[in-house]
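Human: I wish I could look at a protein chain and see how it folds. This is the protein in question:
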Amino acid sequence: MTTKNTGLLHGLKVIEMSHIMAAPTCGQMLADMGADVIKVERAPGGDDTRRFGEGEQGDSAAFAMMNRNKRGLAVNTKSEEGRAALHRIIAQADVFIENYRKGAMEHFGIGWEEMHAVNPRLIYCSVSGFGRTGPYAERGGFDLITQGMSGIMSITGEAPGRPPIKVGAPITDITAGILSATGILGAVVSRYETGEGQYVDSSLYEAGIMHTFWQTAIYHASGEISQPMGSAHPLSAPYQAFPTKDTSLVVGAANQSTWLKFVEAIDSPELAEDPRFETSNTRMTNLDELVSTLTEILSHRTTSEWLEKLEANGVPAGPVYDVKEMSEDPHTIARGMIAKVPAATGGEHSVIAHPVKYSADPTSIRRGAPLMGEHSREVLAEFGFAADEINGLIGSGAIVEPETTAKAAE
C-alpha cells in the first residue's frame, strides 16, 4: 500500500457520480492508473452496493471491490445548494462519469449540454443499460437483462432446449465499465489535439453484444443461429472441459498442430488418422463422437496427471478452479491479482488488483474505498470552496460527511 501517486493519469481530475457496478468499474480503472477519482454519492443512502453483504457503516467487501483509490463526496441532490456545489465542482473537472437513467443529470442541472457550455474541455461519459440514443434509451438496464437481450444467454448453457443460463459473472456491467474507460482515454488523447472534450456514450447492451464475436460472425456468414454448447467452441475442437478421474480439465487443442500434439500426449496417435477427426471441420461435424471418445480416454487419469503430460507436449490445458483455488494459485499471486486494502472502519478487504501491468508507470492501490462523504470537506476545499461555505453546506445537509468526520471537525 502506498499513498504516492505516480500513475499514467496523475493529475487527471475525475468526478464519478455512480452506483452499483458499471460506472464504478470505469472509475476504478482510471483511479488505478493514477487519476484523482472523486466518487459522488447521493445522500441519504448512497451507493446500494454498500449494503450488498454485511458491512459496518456501509463499508462492505462488495463496495470495496470497485471503489478503492477513490475519495468520497456525498451530495443531497434534492437540495438546491447541493446541486449548485456539484455543478461548480464538475465545471472544474477533466472527466465526469455517470450511470443514472436518461434525464437524471439534466434534472440535477449537470447534463452534457449544460456542462459542456461551462467547461468545453470536459469529457462527459454516460454508462447506461442501452445507451442514450435509440428506441431503448429510456429503459433502465441491468446485467441480467442485457445478457438476455445481447444474445449471451442464448449461447450459454449445456445444450439446446435447456433453460437459458446467464454467465455467472456480471460481464456486461464489468465490460461496459472497461469499454467506457477506454472511450474516456481516447477522448483524453483527442483533447490534446483539439482542446475540446466530448460526450462518451457506452452501454451494457453493447458490451454484451461485444461478447458474441464468433456467433455473430457465424450468423451473418451462414444464417446459422448458434446454440448453447456447454464449454465447447462453435468453430474448433477439441476446445472444452472434459471430466477426468478426479475433477475436470479444460483442453485447448484448437488448431491442427496442437491437435496432433494432443493425441500424442494422450497416447492415442491413431485418432489423427481417424477420418472423423482428421481436420478441424471433420472434428466439428463429428463433435459428439469426438467428445465421447476423449471423455473415455481422459477419465482414466487425474487432472494433475494429464496436465503434466499435456504441458510436456505443449498442449494448452488447465484445471477448472473455483474462486478460492484461483485466488491461491501461485500464478495469481505472482501477478499480484489479489490485493489487500484497508477497510474504512478498520481491518482489511481483499480486492481484485488492476489487470494491466506497465513497465514505466505501474499502478498502485493508494487507499481503500471511502465511507460515504468521507472526503467531502477535503474535496470542497480543493475545488475552491471557502471554509464558511463548506460549514454552511454541511450544516444545511446539502453536503454530507460521516458522523465520525463531523465530530472530529468540531
Observations:
- The chain has two domains: 13-210+331-409, 239-243+248-319.
- The CA atoms of residues 75 and 299 lie 59 Å apart.
- The domain at 13-210+331-409 is CATH 3.40.50.10540 (Rossmann fold).
